[in-house]
Amino acid sequence: MSAGHSYGLVVVKVGSSTLVDASGTPDTGFISSLSAQIARTMEGGTRVILVSSGAVAAGMERLAIGSRPKDTPTLQACAAAGQARLTEMYADAFARHGLRCAQVLLTRGDTAERSSYLNARNTLERLLELGAVPVVNENDTVSTGELAFGDNDMLGAIVSSLAGADLYVVLSDVDGLYDSNPELNPEASVIRKVTKVDGRIMRMAGSPTSAVGTGGMRTKVRAARAMLAAGIPMVICRGRAHAVLEEVLSGREVGTRFEPANAGEGARKMWIGLAGISRGQLRVDDGAAKAVVEGGSSLLPVGVTAVEGDFEPGDIVGVVDGEGLLIGRGVVRYSSHELEKIQGLKLDVVARFYPDRADVPCIHRDELLVF
Length: 371
Description:
Elements (H helix, E strand, L loop, with lengths): L8 E6 L1 H4 L8 H16 L3 E6 L2 H8 L9 H24 L5 E6 L1 H5 L1 H16 L3 E6 L13 H12 L3 E6 L20 E2 L4 H7 L11 H14 L3 E5 L5 H7 L5 E3 L8 H9 L2 E7 L1 H8 L10 E6 L6 E5 L5 E7 L3 H7 L4 H7 L9 E8 L1
Parallel strand pairs: 1-2, 1-5, 2-4, 3-4, 5-7, 6-8, 9-11
Antiparallel strand pairs: 7-8, 9-10, 11-12, 12-13
Helix pairs in contact: 2-4, 3-4, 7-9, 7-11, 8-9
């Protein structure tokens, strides 16, 4: 990317650990600074969607709860009070720059259904047309279990995909993705550019470390893997660095940039891969993994080595390789019960069990998003 590159639409995600201050409450100074950066960005013609964590922390302050609750009803009560508080804080901060914001709360169910997914996209597009800054968060007051996104890194990736963003910026509490743990290795350095998320990159991401939010570097790299598939660049950087958003947008080398090698997949494949709810998982052998990832092939029963979950034809399932690395998600053509019978078999043998499916793959390549 060259300096001065202009973006039509940017999605900016800020995590809880970046948003709150040392006392654990939302930092009005940071919110003011971020809003000013977004306002200056919009003056240049770039539209911005903000994905913001921090509702539970804001609600704890408003409800005078000292430590993060562990039970779901209290967590959701904090989220309810906190959403109102956060929206007030952003509205006040943006108003100082003549901007309006709008709260958009989503659950996984809102994106898992294709029709509501498209409706969410239409709502965001209309808000942007009206000159407002959509402030998106998971609707923690009602989302539970499978209807939860789990972390706002992936929520931001889904929003970036459905809105057709030109760039996704994750404002974090670290400088980027390190080649080793900087707490253990003083020589660790930030990787400036990544074009492929493989097992090596996932191992570098480690496990979640933040005590404030629900995400860590691993969730960010998973989101980056999705963005590479979508053909959308993503940057992970330290959110509290001076004017960091403007630095990123100006083309300076900031944080870790995940740069897609191609234009990305179509909208339906992205919905399958990101927004739909996975009902199970297929483990495949090395030959099948290579055929799917490098050859763009459909997944055949002969390559399946294990079946996990309870699903029916038409459900979305994950595809993992021998090391357990997720390599894709797609619409399965068989039930889990059927696949347990025919895994490892060639299609001509499968035809003996199911004569009407002599040429039906497990997942057709047209309905398989490969990461």
